[in-house]
Amino acid sequence: MKAIILNDFGDANKLVMAELPVPEIKPDEVLVRVKAISINPIDVKTRSGKGLAESLKTEWPLVLGWDISGIVQETGEKVRHFKVGDEVFGMVNFPGHGKAYAEYVAAPAAHLAKKPANISFEEAAAGTLAALTAWQAFTLHTKIVSGDRVLIHAASGGVGHFAIQMAKHFGAYVIGTSSAANRDFVLSLGADQHVDYQAQKLVDVVDPVDLVLDGVGGETIDQSLEVLKEGGTIVSLPSGKNETVTEKAAAKGMIGKRMRVESGSTDMEKLASLFENGELRAHVSKTYRLEEMAEAHRQIESGHTVGKIVVKASPSPSEGGE
């Protein structure tokens, strides 16, 4: 099978195409013929030697990636929920070795859900790590209740654009930050208020909020605490600039949490339901081919990706696949 491997950490040119054996599955796994792969900032950080590089440095050849959608080709003897031919999606083995940049992936059945028929393979792949991050932030690390005021930073990005929709699902009043260029996109997702982070100060335009979802870190944490209610919560995603969020929040009588998403089918099934009933949609701004993986990484590195980008691993049925 074709796969993109990483023989050494470094720039995007370190990603090279290779031929690898189709993986063998364990009793609790399924073999997925991958149709689409979603690319995330953690992929880029790990490739460069940061992120999860330390825990994966002994895995050679290293196959990056965790987000997949595709078709079940084989099932392990302990698998009951899936059968050959099922269309599935999920985040595989995060934060371990996902091996998603390949035409075939051996995935724990517990990390997958059935793909809703009303979304494409590309949309399904996009709705995995980023969507799970937003869901787990709002359900595991804090609890939104109807009427809460929620501030979402980087609201036009991968996690942010899902977070807006989920916060609205829970009945929150949502404030999203982005550049002015992405204002209409943020509002189209259901945000009640937009803040141009380049031209406006939060403290001048945002009334006190109950919850902050921070995907930026650094000064954004300090600025967020100025508009967070006493006793409110700020959940900060891995950014390399959020180590002090807990201490800073506590000093002001607030709750600061850092989080990292984890694989799990129960949450994937919740997302599948939201996609199926139309409460959640993935915005795929650009699609690449497997051989264009380095270009996809460079796009993520630009820091200006709207929604998600996706890499197609093999043709969809309409293009001559199954």
Describe this entry's structure for a reader.
Helix content is about 25%, strand content about 25%. It is an alpha/beta fold and about 325 residues long. Strands 3, 4, 5, 6, 7, 14 and 15 form a seven-stranded mixed beta sheet that branches. The protein has a six-stranded parallel beta sheet with strand order 10-9-8-11-12-13, with helices on both faces. Strands 1-2 form a two-stranded antiparallel sheet. Strand 14 (about 285-290), helix 11 (about 295-300) and strand 15 (about 310) form a beta-alpha-beta unit.
Task: Give a summary of the structure in a few sentences.
This protein is of the alpha/beta class and 322 residues long.
List the helices and strands and how they pair.
Elements: E1 2-6, E2 15-19, E3 29-39, H1 41-47, H2 53-56, E4 67-75, E5 87-91, E6 104-108, E7 112-114, H3 121-126, H4 129-139, E8 149-152, H5 158-169, E9 173-178, H6 183-188, E10 193-196, H7 202-205, E11 209-214, H8 219-225, E12 228-236, H9 245-251, E13 255-258, H10 265-276, E14 284-289, H11 293-301, E15 308-312
Parallel strand pairs: 8-9, 8-11, 9-10, 11-12, 12-13, 14-15
Antiparallel strand pairs: 1-2, 3-4, 3-6, 3-15, 4-5, 5-7
